[in-house]
Design goal:
mainly alpha; 72% helix
Length: 98
Amino acid sequence: MEATRRNVSVATLSVQLLGLASSFARAWAANRLVMQPHGLVDVVTPLGLLLIAGTLAAQLLEGLRVPHLTAYLLVGVVAGPHALRLVSHGGVESLKPV
């Protein structure tokens, strides 16, 4: 029973990790293809990316007993304009009201 539960857990974590990597790759590609997003796209895209990636990272790091808030902060730092630049400085500025 324990081995089955552990195998399911490893499979679930693998799928979640693949989903997180996929969302980062898509955001990176979209960021390189679109020169300057306008209006609502400039707000929804970074917000959606950060929420999805933060949720997946929180679930992945839960096994290491890392708090969910820390996972969200890590995703924000990694995806932000100073690391991978998945969210531009303008995208961060557009999220100020949120």
